[in-house]
Predict the 3D structure of the following.
Amino acid sequence: MTVASLLILLILFFVTSIVGVVTGSNSLITVPAMFQAGIDPRVAIATNMFGLTFMSVGGALPFVGRGVIDRKRLPATILLTIAGSIFGALLVLVVPTATLPLVVSISMLGVALFSALKRDAKTKEAVQESSAPRPAFEIAGYALTLALGIYGGFFSGGYITMLTAAYVWLFRMSFVEAVSTTKVINVFSSLVATLIFMSRGLVDYKLGVSLAVVMFVGAYIGGRVALRMNDKFLRRVFLLTVVLLACKILLYDLLWKGLVER
């Protein structure tokens, strides 16, 4: 890899880490960029996951002690995430990832539709007082935590985006609460997958350490900024990013590139 390619990757990872604290979906941008830099696909996914672990820590730190993390559900969601991530990371070793962009884009368009139709997110207090989730929604929330944990360990592109939307919908969290809670959960998802990739020798440590540093700093800055945003603004940023990323994957990565290659 040339010095210019490394610098481009570092800048890209730094910027996406700042924005990704709120929106998620970093891997939909960073992993393809690593492919373009000539990095082996499996090594790219593994090294990106290594950096995501540090990004998740940096993104979670500003929320700790601020009373915005759902501590009641956190132990169960972490355990389900760890179980799912182990399975997902093992899938990377045996399953081709060529069809992932289509699956992710369809999922994100569904998230975008839900976010557009959903009424404005309430504050944490209003949610607790007037719209406590029904038992069926609680069960569905935990089931999705496990299912998305598998995907998070497998690739992670759009994982936190979908998990955040699921928690707002099923657990009746505010966006600030969902963003902060999923950031903590993502620490465990990324760490478990990274340990498995490390055991198989897939992580490029020379590149990974550099990416980890810029992602940690970027996520910490992003987390501090997110705490200053209200739920309504966070929802708009979240929705806009989901729509743009989904359109980029569908229109450019799948349709346009497919036509050009033909």
Remarks:
- Confidence is low (pLDDT under 50) at residues 119-130.
